[in-house]
Amino acid sequence: MLKRDVQAVLDSYYAEALAVAKPGFIQHFRELSAPFLLSVSQAYLDAPVRVMFIGKETNGWCGKLGDFYERSDRIEIAKARYESQHSRGTGRSELLRQWKRFANAFARGDRAAVCWNNLMKMDWYRPKRGFSRTSIDHSAHLFNFSVAAVQFEIELLKPDLIIFGTGHAYDCALKAVLPTRQNVKVEPKALWHFQSNGIECFRTFHPGARDNHAPRPIREYYQEVIDTASKAFAVRLSMPNASP
């Protein structure tokens, strides 16, 4: 699969879905962020194990939604913002640091080979909420738009492994995205390992959550995910030049 061809399908979907959804978003133009759109890398498409790391939503992303809709090159601008993240440092963001750890474990350190995604495609700015821009409860319109988009992205990009760093409070969206599931291991509200349509899936705490909210240090859950997935895909990972 070539990036050019896959991205063309993705871009076409984004353009149509955003156009259809626009009337329902107009009243929220100043409070929602521009959408989180993916720019798929050839490294991801060629990886022996395609890994998608899914967070909740961004905390600020490429400006406001109203400004995004005003741009004729809106899709390109959103993709450029996504691509620029690959070259930026992780800073103090534990989510970005965890993205790097997954790249080290599954993609020889190349973050671009690990597809970073979010369950909610826009974040919700509320001045009195401070840093958090949680948008899971914003509206049915945003929820349904996001679920449909992530479902399309998964179907198109065909990940072998999905890690949801979303915490259990976002399970309603996770279950909507992947309605068919078979449990492998359940540590209530902490670590959920399941399979969906042949994809190995894990859900645990957001990487930036506080350890005192978890039964054990959150880094331990992520290490368990890496260890378990590494065993599951050991043969593929030993053949790094093989394509799925």
What's the helical proportion of residues?
40-55%
What is the first-to-last residue Cα distance? 10 Å
CATH architecture: 3-Layer(aba) Sandwich
Helix tally equals 9
Gyration radius from CA atoms, angstroms: 17 Å
- The level 1 CATH classification is Alpha Beta
Helix and strand composition category: alpha/beta
The dominant shape is globular
Q: In terms of per-residue confidence, which ranges show pLDDT below 50 for 5 or more consecutive residues?
A: none
Total strand segments: 6
Biggest β-sheet, characterized? 6 strands, mixed
**Order of secondary-structure elements:** HHEHHHEHEHEEEHH
| Average pLDDT number | 94
Number of domains: 1
Strand order, main sheet: write it out: 2-1-3-6-5-4
Beta strand %: 5-15%
In CATH, the topology is named Uracil-DNA Glycosylase, subunit E
Task: Outline the structure in words.
- The protein has 244 residues and is an alpha/beta fold.
- The protein has a single domain, classed as Uracil-DNA Glycosylase, subunit E (3-Layer(aba) Sandwich), CATH 3.40.470.
- It has helices at 3-25, 42-46, 65-70, 74-87, 94-106, 140-157, 171-177, 218-232, 234-237, and strands spanning 51-55, 114-118, 161-164, 182-187, 191-196, 199-203.
- It has a 6-stranded mixed beta sheet with strand order 2-1-3-6-5-4, covered by helices on one side.
